[in-house]
Sequence to fold (391 residues):
Amino acid sequence: MLRSTRAALHPGRLGTASLALIATTLAAGLTPMPSAGAAQPAAPRAVSRAADSQGQGSEPGGAPTSVTEIADGFTEPWTISFLPDGQSALTTERNSFKVWHVLRDGSKELVGRIPHSVVTADEKTKGDGGLLGVAPSPTWDGVTDQDVFFMHTTATGNRIAKMRFDGASLSDYTPVLTGIRKARDHNGGKIAFGPDGYLYVTTGDAWVPELAQDKESLNGKILRITTRGEPAPGNPFGNHVYSYGHRNPQGLAWDRRGRLWSAEIGDEKYDELNLIKPGKNYGWPACEGPCRVEGMTNPKHAWRPAEAVPSQIAVVSNVIYVSTLLGSQLWRVPIDGDSDRVGVPRAYYRDVYGRLRALAKVPGKDQLWMATNAHGPGKDKILKVTITVQE
Ligand SMILES: [Ca+2]
Fold:
């Protein structure tokens, strides 16, 4: 595949040296390995190319077995979040600020645009700000609870805002948490309610790496907040911060033990899959990928950017699925039982559907909804991935 062309679409993402390294290791048929000093648990593992796009449901925890189209007509959908009844989902478009209500039968309706939104791209550079994450209240029913939360970029910074959604349209915009620094990219942007009922938020370092190590800053963090935008009770530092030392954290998902996992976009060397624990320091900018710096928490898996640039994650039957942009594939990363380890990752659909960003588990089913990304105005689709789990 034309990796150099892909990399060229992301100026500054991969240097010439990195491309040369990746080209060399790909020629050898191996996933690039970490430097000799890297800690073993997080080392990228060799992946057999022959394993790609297989999957007959024989893996413990299941594997993808079929893909069908749910709906089309989207333009760069950023995230998918199901309403609590599991019968429909909301999806956001980053650059148009539109919010679509998509039913399981594939019908869709435009329910509004999020006001005060701005994009961060200019004519020459791609930016990743705009309308980002969406998370309905866990008790949303459209009547007594109509709250839906969004993360978006505004003229003054990134913020969490709340709107009312009655099942037909959005109204009553209310800022919830403001003052998250924005930049052209490194804006984070995923939001999700945890099993504890609090809202978790990923924020990027906004191109100021030292903010990730500043526990008083909202940037380069995973935040844990109330629906009023206050620090959630029990946070490790008594403020909004749940974990720190993040560069551009993206997807959030909880496993069967209620543990939080997050995918993170690194710089030129490694992207990461992290097991998130309160108060831990995930290393940026001292560490990118696995390292041996005291006090830093290493990722459970790391990828070379050409294989990943991860976006969102979802857990089905104790397996973490990771959508990727530059990698243009869906990674399957099995959790090793109830341990802190993961098994051997496997990639599916390389370059079949192009860049993959939005991803969500369908409540109550062994299915994912996954959206294509950047095929052109009105040309992106939401796909249904069926996971076959053998007992
Ligand atoms: Ca890290």
User: Anything to note?
Assistant: Helices lie at 3-8, 16-27. Residues 16-27 form the longest helix (12 residues). The radius of gyration is 19 Å. Residues 120 and 293 are 34 Å apart (CA to CA).
